[in-house]
Amino acid sequence: MMISLVEVQIASSASCCQELVHFYPSSASSPAVKMLSSLPSKVAKTSAVRLLNKSLNHQAVRSLGTAKSFHLDSPDNNETTYFDFTEENYERANRILRKYPDNYRQAAMIPLLDLAQRQNGGWLPLAAMDKVAQICHVAPVRVYEVASFYTMFNRTPVGKYFLQVCGTTPCMICGSEEIMQTIENHLGIKNGQTTKDGMFTLLEVECLGACANAPMVQINDDYYECLSKETMIELMESMKKDKLPPVGKWGSLPMNGQVSCEGPLGKTSLFETPKPPKVDPNRFKEGKVDPASVKERMAY
Predict the structure, then answer these.
(1) Which of 36, 46, 151, 233 yields a CA-CA distance of 20 to 30 A from 227?
(2) Does the keyword NAD apply (predicted)?
């Protein structure tokens, strides 16, 4: 458990380390706490607390992953950046607002942020968030809180095609690491980067809810499922030509003869006992699963 600055400072009084260890028993073995316990004076304890807190803050930032909970000015996102809705989008915004009572305009915050992001090429500058705050009659910080909480809102520029590769367990055992490596090699970028021409942004994300058709990638609004190295390359080549990938072949509709999101057993229901799949008794003999045949090896 992370120890906050306030908790450490409270513990830095006369009963400094006793309180710290009482609330966080695991901290007793910490070298910093042992050092703090041995200091003779309150002044020395206070100085040590500052160093300890600096270390804890560093750990906290690392625990947040790649997401930043703060804003840094950039050439395309600073206090001089301008944003306003187009006339067409003001009409859309008004239609959104009419769905909510006048005294609950803030309920429209998320759809308005989505509208602003779509108008601005897939990301939200501060000016767009401020405009949404103005329309919703709330303080800008309320909008910042929402935009920084939900991962579908991008606070830095992204490419025309935003590739989000699911890396959670079902996709991983079905070959998402190979999909990720294929994209990196084909586009010449790493996780979190954008190509120099601004066409592609690559990001590994947590579960996108299409586990039955792993591995999968979300490209902008659409899901592309049951991917292989070859079909992923074919997708990227299509996008390089600035053509929308054919949805009928991959996107939003499963491939490989499936007509919905059924698993390897086809459609099943709770009213009947499904026929068990053929399972190779030696499927884990080598300690790993071949992603190409993982669907045949599933036993559910």
Answers:
(1) 151
(2) yes
